[in-house]
Amino acid sequence: MLTDIQAAGARSTYQPSRHEPASPQETRAFPLERRWRQPAATPDDITISRWTCTQTGIRHEEATTPADRYFFAIALKTSRAKLTRGRHTIFDGIMPAGTLYIGAPLQQLSAQFSAPCDFLHFHVSASTYFPFLRPGAGTASAEGLNDLVLLRDPFAEQLAKALTERGHSADREFARCIGQTLAMHLARRELPHSKVNALPKWRLRRVEEYVGTHFDHCISLSELAKVAGLSRMHFAAQFRAATGYRPREYLLHQRIERAKSLLSNSETALAEVALTVGFCTQAHFSTVFKRITGDTPARWRCASRNASASSRLSGGDPASTYKAVSHVLPADFS
Q: What pLDDT does residue 198 have?
């Protein structure tokens, strides 16, 4: 097994948002799965399906990749998952949007999801797209493309976005081209020569608790490294391995989550919200907020209230009526 970034089994920092998308609609290009990793469509050289789960409790799934297939999964929203095979843990932690998982033929996989999730699944012909994969061969070997977990692969995330944004207008040929591009991307990807150990659970818990109580103050990398009991260099690498986020990026996401709560549940002015969650200026707060959620704070607050009002009038579940106004997007912080 080889993982690009192996995640530790940390307490989940994922907070289900009331403003995430409702369940996706069926499309011809990528129909919804009735059972995990079991597409209803007749297998082609590339079959694409979508699996979504809106429940907040723990859900267990299990599947085995067919003998003639590779299996790719791209997370469309941030979730929390544990992937295992027998007693061996492959991944246990937060899966940010854009996370890519690859499974080789004939590999059994058990999954435990403890947060709502939404995935695109690609079932790809091994003989058509990976005929050269054999032990020890090529840039990507058969061993390298098994249980490979790439947290927030930007190119894969953009391919998934291109496909899902087309919705009903995405025909099967377009979807097949997306699948082919993804397969070529992975076949030619240079696999990491070594892996970084993830930050142990107890160290990560200390960092999470520290950020949770000091998010409104200026927190430096050195400060977080000291909390974890590591050097700056080792802490930054191990923290990213455990969470998929750089420390600075993680701090910003936590601040934005706090800001969302204030925007939804109070009349606090935007400038005051910015200062309350640790930003020095409203301008910087608005820039970061839009980068992470895709909307300005004012528009997000308006959409949140409109969705709440619509839900109250319909008497339905808020989670089923909200429009997608919040997305976790990869950001490039040094």
A: 79
